[in-house]
Please model this.
Amino acid sequence: MGKREPFDVKSPEAQALRDEIVHGTFVKEGTFVAFPLCFPGCSVPIAADESHVTALDMAENWMAYGATSGRAAHVFVGMFHGATGMVFDLGVVKDATHCAALCCGRKRFVAFTNGPGGGRAVARALQGLPFDLLQEWGFGRQPFDDLGPIAEGERVLHAVRTPARDLIVGVTERHLFTMNPDEGKPELVGEAPGAARLAVSSKGSVFGLDEGNTLWRYSPQSRRLKRRAVRLPEGAWGEVHRQDACATMLWARDPKSGRLYTADDEGNLYAFAEGRGFSERLGRTRYAPVGPMAVTADGRLYGPCGDGIARFFRYDPATGDLADLGCAVSVMERRRYGYAFGDAAAGRDGQLYFGEDDDLGHLWIYFPRVQPRRAAARGG
Model:
């Protein structure tokens, strides 16, 4: 045997190994549950190559709606309150292989899909109760309402709804469109570059990536689009300008304050508030790029980062702490590892939903660690 070189305990490699041992490979805070896209024990999951979850939204009654991409695009509803615990496949969208966004109104959802002919919108009434599946309930699959193409020959890149659920704003490759989520069809309102996902600010304006490291702003109140309205902070924003990389610049919205979070190509995290602009850099995630994020009711931000096998992180605005949480693993009933995620949404009771963008995708439900209660001040 050859002589083994001595291991330098002070080397960067040794430090990286020590950090991995100390911090752990898999999630060490909170609990993940990987839920299959079916009613376990009663129905068959969506086919593996049709189950990449790329769009999520929550209805007013806190049912989770989502859509998949792959060989075919499906729309599904997840029921996790009451005696439910199921995902129901609402059907396949004809001639669609990708879903860019799904938005829930008060009465119906609208899914924005892409196929060989470009982007289209389909809609259907929201799923009603029950919240008790201990009885023998039956479910039917009504056909989707085809709302037609958005902009002829153009793919839909993203769409968002307002918190009041009275308006959807979206982008194709070259156009901005709006629609009422509960009635009507999408209408083009102007030209705007479609290069990244959209976000709704605390004041109700919709922001999207523009040319020259800027953001455009669309005001639903005035129906005016202002190009190059806000400059991005200093950072690495090159990848977000690629037309095929609309998922590289993602946003998360604090449901209470309306504060927005985003990250550049290197994982530098920033907050944004309309009227005040971007914050200083809040920190840097362990890996890049940053994936779909969501904010809990108490303001903590969670999301994956890294390409291939993502690790989750947590940012707490109360303390400024940005923590690496490890890779996603679910050990409930069956063991599953989560590597790639396509969208995220916040649930009713503090849980977060992450759609797995992988073959045989699952709906991952994350239950964050409960914050320790601070001791009340004595006296007074």
About this structure: The domain at 38-128+142-298 is CATH 2.120.10.30 (Neuraminidase).
